[in-house]
Amino acid sequence: QVQLVESGGGLVQAGGSLTLSCANANSGFTLEDYAIGWFRQAPGKEREGISCITSKDDSKYYTDSVKGRFTISRDNAKNTVYLQMNSLKREDTAVYYCAATQLMDSVCVFATDDYAYWGQGTQVTISS
User: Fold this and answer.
1) Residue 44 pLDDT greater than 80, yes or no
2) Residues whose CB is less than 8 angstroms from the CB of residue 97 and which lie 6 or more positions away in sequence, other chains included
3) Contact 60, 51 (CB under 8 A)
4) What is the sign of the dihedral through the CA atoms of 43, 83, 10 and 5?
5) pLDDT digits (tens, 9 = 90+) for 64-115
6) Please, what is the Cα angle at 78 between 4 and 87, to 5 degrees?
7) Of 61, 94, 114, 121, which has the fewest beta carbons less than 10 angstroms from its beta carbon?
């Protein structure tokens, strides 16, 4: 089955940038066949969806708080999906997760129950 592994988190100053990666550790499955969502969970808050990319046509969606700052993309040759994060703010501090679903080929949404596979998360901390 799909095994997602996030990487790229860390500590960065406000205004800085990070690129998160979501790779499939199981070479028997290709992420190209899945819509991928990025979610985050800050301490004491619910998990929220921030970006997703569809499987059929790579349509991209962003929640309002990250529009214009974050960019989702996929590299099928590397079986990896990326989240480029620019102009980071302290409120972006959270554990970031990627998730995969085969239910969203042309439109993707941030319904966590529709994502079958999840990574373990990577911590992103923004300092002032």
Assistant:
1) yes
2) 6, 38, 39, 40, 41, 47, 118, 119, 120, 121
3) yes
4) positive
5) 999 999 999 999 999 999 999 999 999 999 999 999 999 888 889 899 999 9
6) 75
7) 114
User: Cα(7)–Cα(59) distance, rounded to whole angstroms?
Assistant: 23
CB 2 within 8 A of CB 117: yes
DSSP-derived 3-state class of residue 120: coil
What contacts 86, CB < 8 A, 6 or more positions away?
17, 69, 70, 71
